[in-house]
């Protein structure tokens, strides 16, 4: 059982506030990913949960019991680090057993747990090898195995895949997801890679400047970002943005003037805005519509087409405006250099962010995705 509650958690280093007002409950069995730009305080928060950093403010509880002052080895929490630092002179089995030996666990019990973990992580054939005779991915699996044998209530992963090459990362990501599905243990995972966050998380905690910017299921953050910052962080390619002026704010639709001079009624509650406000329109690369279904059509020219096989990303320059946009197209779309393109906008497929960067609530339903 691993239910974690963080209430008003904050951290200062030398009087400087690094982390603040963190309120978060992580349910037993959940896979939660902390994500955010470099320096936003992800690792610091994880290390406070592990007990490797003091907590300056707030209260942290595991299964209802305060753990603020409990030393790391006495918390029922196991951590997998980015640098896996295995003991080179020990075999895989010895590396995995080491922590249990120190804790004077019974020999037969050690054997049982090492065998079980090795089975889960596909390491059974490698138990007698030394770390130098393993690939990067295998070493990372041993590092996970070292934590797995402790059978902690909560697993913490601090960017565990960042030392691996791209193909191995995908492979290990699938293995970690599989491990979570089988163990149903609480897992907290830190990464700055939004793809890792989107694919692994039950819930994403997006951190920004030491605070929580938004918490929610990956698709909620993608379709209903609360701020421009969240919208820009989640999703690749990055959401397209255009500066607009508010013309007619309303509860169901808010009309804005685009740089082209056209007016678009965006399906958002813009009641808190005023006519004349500067705002930002957001359109994801796949949210342009066919010109015959569009409420507004923008004239653009192709700058570069990135042909990725299953899709093509067309980077376009808008006519008469210094703005570039990216459109996601089918991988077989034929495009000529400098081709003229019409981009269709529909108010239901756009986001609107006020002058403060906060999103106006979208007035659309997306099946299976909660706001
Ligand atoms: N020991 C320390 N003393 C002073 N400041 C620190 C210390 N450790 C971290 N910080 C600062 O705290 C902030 C958050 O750091 P943290 O490592 O938690 O960020 P992060 O989101 O994990 O970043 P990254 O993705 O780059 O690892 C940074 O501004 C960092 O410089």
TrEMBL record:
ATP-binding listed as a keyword: yes
CDD domains linked to this entry: ABC_MalK_N
Keyword Transferase: yes
One Gene Ontology term of the molecular function aspect: ATP binding
Record Pfam families: ABC_tran, TOBE_2
Keywords: ATP-binding, Nucleotide-binding, Sugar transport, Transferase, Transport
Name this protein carries in UniProt: Sn-glycerol-3-phosphate ABC transporter ATP-binding protein UgpC
Span of domain ABC transporter: 4-234
Phylogenetic classification of the source organism: Bacteria, Pseudomonadati, Pseudomonadota, Gammaproteobacteria, Oceanospirillales
The organism's place on the tree of life at top rank: Bacteria
